[in-house]
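Hi Y.,

Following your request, here is the sequence exactly as I used it, all 60 residues.
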Amino acid sequence: MSGRQRFAAVVALLVLGFAMIALADLLDEYWPLFLTPLPYAVIPWLVVHDDVEPSAAPRA
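Below is the corresponding structure, written out as tokens. Let me know if you'd prefer a different format.
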């Protein structure tokens, strides 16, 4: 995943999280708030996830 795609995914996840908060307010319900941490929890993983496979450790 390129840097531009990663950035777009982070923005999409942030928008999804805020949309769930807005949905909870619109519906006057609390259940969307329980789902809100899910997209926010994916963001740190997405930021530190590296597409490059680790090189094999040299054998002694």
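The helical segments are 3-27, 31-35, 37-48.

Thanks again,
Q.
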